[in-house]
Amino acid sequence: MAQVQVHREGIEFEDPTLVEGLPGVGLVGKIAADHLVDSYDMEHYASVLCEGLPEIAVYAEGDPTVRAPVRVYADAERDLLVLQSDAPVSPSAADEFASCLVGWFDSQGLTPIFLSGMPAEKDDVPEVYGIATGDGETLLEEADIGAPTESGAVTGPTGALVHEAQRIGMTGVGLVVEADPQFPDPEAARALLNTGIGPLGEFEVDTEALVEQAEEIGEAKERLAKQMQNAEEEESTSARPLGMYQ
Q: Where is this region: Disordered (predicted)?
């Protein structure tokens, strides 16, 4: 049965925020999510068993414990949850996946932050803007996050999640950042953390290590980036100008 299986019922939250980190353009969401989990030594809180995920066994270096490919980590001190993903979502099951996951968000009273990269050539610090579902516009204004500078659409599994959140009237926020369309982009992930996630979650994010380890991160993530490039467009999260769909 499709579900989110919670392993740590004893962890309590007041008004939790969840950061979504599915792979996509520049792997910006995944890099940002991984950085939060590692920086705060977050606890494995739940396993995502929704339809659309590959039935694979994931394990980590130095740890023989097998885990689900998509997991939720928790930090009660910061009232924070992070969705960490090691596998793409099947495009044929994106709707079922989004319904399952957003349904769980709603049942837990979470405010989701969805992350997406916009393919772009960057000259300076990557631009970040926000989109909103429900009453999310108020959250963007309070965090001083700018509005889109052009019409666009979020595709892939993150697009399906945002669509489902909008459909049920859930308050949520989407962050879109300019990102390298071909390679992992730690710089764009850093912009998401500093400009969007930190202010929205009302906590400080130390991203110096992310900059220093950019080369190492690039090498570690490049294989997954190539896999995402070869996948169907709907399988990879992306934000693109709306003109591409007209």
A: 221-246
Domains of the chain: residue spans and CATH: 15-245 (3.40.50.10900)
Residue keyed to tokens 């996050």: 145
* Cα separation values, 27 from 52, 111, 145, 187, 246, Å: 19, 22, 21, 11, 26
Please check whether residue 97 is in contact with residue 89, taking contact to mean a CB–CB distance below 8 angstroms. Answer: yes
Residue type, 195: T
What is the rounded CA–CA span in Å between residue 46 and residue 118? 29
Instruction: Tell me the pLDDT tens digit for each residue of 102-150.
Output: 999 999 999 999 999 999 887 788 999 999 999 999 999 999 999 998 8
Q: CB–CB of 82/36 below 8 Å?
A: yes
